[in-house]
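Uridylate kinase, pasting as requested.
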Amino acid sequence: MKYKRILLKLSGESLAGDGEYGLSAGVLGSYASQIREIAGAGVEVGIVIGGGNIFRGMQGAERGFDRVKGDQMGMLATVINSLALESALRAEGMQAKVLTSICMEPVGEYYSKDKAVDYLSRGYVVIIGGGTSNPYFTTDSAAALRGIEIEADVLLKGTRVDGIYDADPEKHPEARKFGEITFGEVYARGLRIMDLTAFTLCRENGLPIVVFDMDTPGNLRRVVRGEAIGTLVRE
Ligand code: UDP
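Structure tokens follow.
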């Protein structure tokens, strides 16, 4: 395996499957079995999940909610998703543990780097819920931050798209996919892979990113083995 310790970022939206809202048991099961493949091969897996399938602070603000309250609702949504994935992983026979950035024991243990690394080294899949615990951030930033903290080898951003293109492939069928791209070129071309806070955190701390299609079973294992799946962003 190319990567020994990874931070996997899953979007909340993808957990909804064909629906726009809520949780799809099928998607959770498929993600859990993909994760089992790599964890079973000895890869240490940290996970951060979004909350977009349940609530996003910005959407709340558009409907008149206080932004900070809305963001807190969004962060709680990430905990719901984390618990759902923990349960799906356990159903696959894995050891999994939810740590939360916001103190809410006994729902999950309160996050610390030491605790996360300790569980990882004992073979647990560690899901870190609650975002960064701060409003005005996204779970991409949480994924970057936790990836750096736990000293992951790579941040894997599992999406519905199979990599980074020079234009939106849904609008421009001639768009070209990058196999590899530098952080500098992503800035220069104005490509949006994740929010700039998250992206800059990765760059400044030397955490490479792979964007890949997580909805094709087997892809996670291929990425972790170092196969040319998706797009690798590095210095
Ligand atoms: N959020 C936040 N701080 C964080 C992470 C998330 O306030 O550190 C809130 C924010 O409102 C966000 C929501 O949680 O819209 C869900 O996260 P995100 O939009 O990143 O989820 P995804 O798009 O990945 O499903």
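Note for the archive: The chain is about 40% helix and 20% strand.
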